[in-house]
Amino acid sequence: NCKFQHLCTCNIKSSFEETNEAIFYLYDEEGGQNQTPSKIVNNGEEFHLTIHNETRKNIYFVKTDKCLIVEEENLQKCDCLVFDEKQFYFVEIKTCKSGRRAERRREAIPQLESTIDLLIKNKIDLNGFKTTALICFKTAFPRIIQASQKTAASIFKEKYNIELAEGNEIIFL
Predict the structure, then answer these.
(1) Per-residue DSSP letter, 75
(2) Pairing mode of beta strands 16-19, 130-137
(3) How far apart are CA 94 and CA 139, in angstroms?
């Protein structure tokens, strides 16, 4: 369960949610002392990531940062995990001003790696999943997943056998 229920402004005060909506949106409020983790938001609200689920199967959402993993662990972590029975996404949402995308990308990679390492350390087996580490930047138009910088992506793939990508849209098949 959420480790910050006394501070959290989420509608569902749990680190784990399940939905079978055909389309839903994730938002992560970044910055400062804010204790609100990433969350599912309604259409029309501000969002960073769009998730398509046209077959309306169960999609699972785990709020890792500022919810499941406590800050005292002094551990970098990605914002959330999104998965079904076949696909698994480690998601780090970044906001940035023009010209800072490369810097924010460099910040995101260790957060994704640290979360992957934590799952490996806790013997969570991702074999059998198509697994992607996704860096999400908010843009005014949908961006389907693209391979992140080739060098970083190839190092990431070699180290974890996980695709490193960038985009703001996930499609579950």
Answers:
(1) -
(2) unpaired
(3) 11
Q: Are 9 and 36 in contact (CB under 8 A)?
A: yes
pLDDT in tens, the chain (173 residues): 555 555 555 555 567 889 999 999 998 876 655 567 788 888 888 899 999 999 999 999 988 877 666 655 567 889 999 999 999 999 999 887 767 788 888 899 999 999 999 899 989 999 999 999 999 987 655 555 555 567 888 889 999 999 999 889 999 98
Please name the residue that has the structure tokens 């087996």: 125
Round to the nearest angstrom and report the end-to-end CA distance of the chain.
Answer: 29
Q: Do residues 50 and 87 touch, judged by C-beta distance below 8 A? A: no
* pTM of the complete model: 0.85
Whether the Cβ atoms of residue 93 and residue 48 lie closer than 8 Å to each other: yes
The pair of structure tokens assigned to 64 is: 């890792």
Residue found under tokens 């013997």: 123
Strands 130-137 and 59-63: unpaired
> What size, in residues, is the chain?
173
- Helix (H), strand (E) at residue 18: strand 16-19
Token look-up 């949908």 returns 142
Residue 60's SS3 state is strand
Cα separation of 117 and 124, whole Å?
10
